[in-house]
Amino acid sequence: MSLGNANTSAQSGGKNKPIVVKRRKEVVAAVGYTQISASPKQSSNACSVNTSSGLTETYYHDGSAALPAQFDQVYSKRQASDRFYLQPGHYKTSTGTLHQSFEIARAGTVIAVTGCKS
Fold first, then answer.
1. Around Cβ 39, how many Cβ atoms within 10 Å?
2. What count of other Cβ atoms lies within 10 Å of the Cβ of residue 37?
3. Is 0.70 surpassed by the pTM of this model?
């Protein structure tokens, strides 16, 4: 009985080509996050930013209120990733009738909220 060698029975007729696997980039959308318009980062209390023309940035927070509250996480993109945490600093935001300045600590966490007159 002939056993043959492994190359004769298992070798294919074509060239061995590596299999290319295309990876799909997973984007985890922050479902249920609230979009806000806010100012760019300020070095101190942001209440002095003009509400009508200074709220040029779009951010997202994970809180249930219209504006960020203490301990909410705020992101620069609508993705639940630490890569998109808002940078530490002060930001102003508004609902049109309610205006506030919020301070971000490290890791995108709101540590203080201050009401603004306008």
1. 23
2. 16
3. yes
